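Protocol step 4 of 5: obtain the predicted structure for the target chain.
Materials: sequence only (see below). No template structures provided, no constraints applied. The aim of this step is simply to have a reference model before the mutagenesis design in step 5. Sequence pasted as it appears in the construct record:
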Amino acid sequence: MRSRLRTLPALLLVTCLAVTSVAAAESKAVQTMAGILANLNHFASDSEKATLKGIVDDKASTAPEKTVAQALINVKHTVDAADKSKLQALVADKDTPASIKTLAEVILALNHTPSDAEKAKLKKLVS
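Step 4 output (structure tokens):
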């Protein structure tokens, strides 16, 4: 029993490190998009669009990340009609990561700029 109790903290540490590594590996694109979206004012700047295009073109980006990045490129005050159904599908899919759902929901509700509550959610994704 004592040996099990001694190995439990080590096992928990290894598990936490593994989960953190996986999250960190996929979060760079999400963090970038959340930062851009949190500061969005009507539409992304040219340099932000270039950064988002880099996410779209990156082979390491997931399909949902690419969908969100492209939708963010296309935003002009509100979500582009062509992107709306794609974002809604991401939100409805139970397998979509929570961070991607948050980005998609904010873009879907966008009216020139995210609300203060949405900005608070996005800032959590950046840090």
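Step 4 remarks: The chain has six helices and no strands. The two ends are 39 Å apart (CA to CA).
Proceed to step 5.
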